[in-house]
């Protein structure tokens, strides 16, 4: 099994953590989808990572789809509930975390443009999305809808989203007034799977 991605993508990190937690052996193929030399379009016509290549040469892309595929392999630990509505609620939490990643990524790309070409309106719009998303996650962490145990696709996605905010210094001060979310991600970051997938410092 091959995972096509790069070391800084929070979506790739999510899948890497799932693979590690399930003890699935995989080859990591480092690929920067933003370069013209990228091989990502060979695996995903949208040119995005992550993409997963199975031993049968099946290509799976988009992190929620890959997570679902890995769950279908029926390898412990189970990270998505069997009961359909419980699974749907968990996938909605995953979607919320992925949406925070989306907004953070748009912010990073916007800030990489020349200063004169950056849109403050767009940056503000993304900051507001992130803030509202984090506020909801804080509520879910406070009422235990989200917790560090048992490990799930949802709390993995949440930790990867927060890890990306920290890594790219998007929304500095996000942890102020969100103590339950801070505690949640701190517990998850202590797991070996998160330690092994931490983005490079440089």
UniProtKB/TrEMBL annotation:
InterPro entries: Glutathione-S-Trfase_C-like, Glutathione-S-Trfase_C_sf, Glutathione_S-Trfase_N, GST_C, Thioredoxin-like_sf. Residues 83-202 form the GST C-terminal domain. Its EC number is 2.5.1.18. PROSITE patterns: GST_CTER (PS50405), GST_NTER (PS50404). Signal peptide: none annotated. Keywords: Transferase. It is an enzyme of class 2 (transferase). The keyword Transferase applies. GO terms for biological process: glutathione metabolic process; L-phenylalanine catabolic process. Residues 1-78 form the GST N-terminal domain. Pfam families: GST_C (PF00043), GST_N_2 (PF13409). GO terms for molecular function: glutathione transferase activity; maleylacetoacetate isomerase activity. This is Glutathione S-transferase. It comes from Dryocola boscaweniae.
């Amino acid at each position: 099994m091959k995972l096509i991605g790069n070391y800084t993508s929070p979506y790739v990190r999510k899948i890497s953590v799932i693979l590690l937690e399930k003890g699935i052996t995989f080859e990591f193929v480092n690929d920067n989808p933003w370069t013209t030399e990228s091989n990502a379009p060979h695996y995903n016509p949208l040119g995005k990572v992550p993409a997963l290549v199975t031993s049968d040469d099946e290509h799976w892309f988009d992190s929620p789809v890959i997570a679902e595929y890995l769950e279908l392999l029926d390898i412990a630990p189970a990270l998505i509930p069997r009961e359909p509505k419980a699974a749907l609620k968990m996938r909605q939490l995953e979607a919320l975390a992925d949406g925070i990643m989306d907004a953070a990524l748009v912010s990073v790309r916007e800030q990489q443009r020349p200063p004169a070409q950056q849109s403050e309106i767009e940056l503000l719009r993304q900051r507001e999305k992130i803030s509202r998303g984090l506020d909801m996650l804080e509520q879910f962490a406070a009422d235990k809808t989200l917790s560090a145990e048992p490990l799930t696709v949802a709390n993995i996605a949440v930790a990867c989203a927060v890890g990306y905010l920290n890594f790219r210094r998007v929304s500095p001060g996000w942890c102020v007034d969100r103590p339950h979310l801070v505690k949640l991600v701190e517990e998850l970051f202590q797991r070996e799977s998160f330690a092994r997938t931490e983005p490079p410092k440089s």
